[in-house]
Amino acid sequence: MGRDLALDLGTANTLVYRQGDGIVFDQPTVVAMNTTTGEVVSTGEDAWQKISARSGSVVAVRPLRHGVMTEFDVTQRMIGSVLRGVGVSKFPKPRVLVCIPSETSEVERRAVEEAVRSAGGRGVVLVEEALAAAIGAGLPIHEPVGNLIVDIGGGTTEIGVVSMGGVVSGLSIRVGGFDLDASIREHIRVRYGVAIGEKAAEQIKIAIGSAVPSPRAREAIVTGRELSSGAPREIRLGEDEVRQAMSQPVGRIVEAARRTLAEAPPELTHDVLETGTFLTGGGALLRGLDLLLSQECEVPVHMTDRPLETVVMGAGAMLERLDDYRSSFQLVRPH
Ligand SMILES: Nc1ncnc2c1ncn2[C@@H]1O[C@H](COP(=O)(O)OP(=O)(O)OP(=O)(O)O)[C@@H](O)[C@H]1O
Ligand SMILES: [Mg+2]
To answer: How far is Cα 248 from Cα 129, in angstroms, rounded to an integer?
Structure first.
């Protein structure tokens, strides 16, 4: 007990790495709450079960939006439940390294620190997700070469050129996989007058979503509720239609990567043209996104091995050698 932890508190998924053990927690960032009492009934995968069981007035709450807390109390209680779940007790308390988007404001940073501290963390260290992702992707971050990392999560896309142990230029935009789901829902609402759920939209994206046309255009069938009558209605969707529906948020991600490259110091851009871009995060799994990025940015694109785990694995690697990293990175804020 008391071993230090790395926490990737993502908009979609929460992962915890424990020193010496690796990943010990990996669950959706969702809380089942009793609306009458305000009590947290359960968290993670189990929360979905509780909702589908329709036990009384229990609702699902996603306490983060675009990588930042929108529901402080709920997040705090969720972190408490996560830390207890991995065996954190009152004493000895662990140090916790938390990954945050680079655009996080000072107020938001303090809120994260406070939430983790009150949930049982002894000291809290914040690290930028792009840096953790670069380390998790196994990039040679200490070397004087530039590497471009693009981490597409549920709520944010973190883009950074990493060199000499830090993020030398980067961009964080509040666009991620959830925005693709929202675009699909909006398209179905406008085109067919039918409402579908968030999870149904995500399933369509995973099943037939793509960033570039594929030789075998696939189809999916989804059931929604007709807005005019409230009656259930089945819709058949084609791959091209879904790609069109998602084109705006996908375009914003591609544009942000292109801008980061254009604005990086020329010698680093030159490196990236050779070494390529490393794509990670769950959103990177969208079919053909690597191809689109390589076409639009004119750089080779490599997928990381386990894109959903890259950030927490990188943060874990930092945790194992926190003192080395503390002296090398200005962007880590020790407390
Ligand atoms: N096969 C897939 N195809 C397309 N998208 C996918 C696939 N698998 C997962 N995703 C998407 O990945 C996103 C979750 O990724 P990830 O866990 O990296 O986000 P996060 O770290 O929780 O969020 P953030 O970093 O933005 O706060 C979700 O939007 C999910 O729909
Ligand atoms: Mg993430």
So the answer is: 24
CATH architecture, domain defined by 139-175+248-304 = 2-Layer Sandwich (3.30)
Q: What is the pLDDT of residues 47-69, one digit of tens each?
A: 888 777 666 788 889 999 998 88
> What is the architecture of the domain spanning 177-246?
Alpha-Beta Complex (3.90)
The answer to whether 109 and 100 have CB atoms below 8 angstroms apart is yes
Atom of ligand 1 nearest to the CA of 287: 3
Q: Which residues line ligand 1 (CB under 6 A)?
A: 10-13, 67, 153-156, 176-178, 202, 205-206, 209, 281-283, 285-286, 308
Superfamily of domain 5-130+312-328: ATPase, nucleotide binding domain (3.30.420.40)
Instruction: Give CA–CA dist 180/184, Å, rounded.
Output: 6
pTM above 0.70, yes or no: yes
Q: Return the H-helix or E-strand segment holding 34.
A: strand 31-34
Q: How far is the CA of 202 from the centre of ligand 1 (A)?
A: 10
In the chain, list all ranges with CATH 3.30.420.40: 5-130+312-328, 139-175+248-304
Q: Strand, helix or coil at 58? A: strand
- The percent of residues above 70 in pLDDT, for the chain, comes to 94
CB–CB of 319/17 below 8 Å? Answer: yes
Residue 54 confidence (pLDDT): 60
pLDDT at 9 over 90: yes
Residue with CA closest to ligand 1 atom 12: 282
* Parts of the chain belonging to CATH 3.90.640.10: 177-246
Whose Cα sits closest to atom 21 in ligand 1? 10
| pLDDT tens-digit series, residues 243-278 | 999 999 999 999 999 999 999 999 999 999 999 999
Q: What percent of the chain has pLDDT over 90?
A: 68
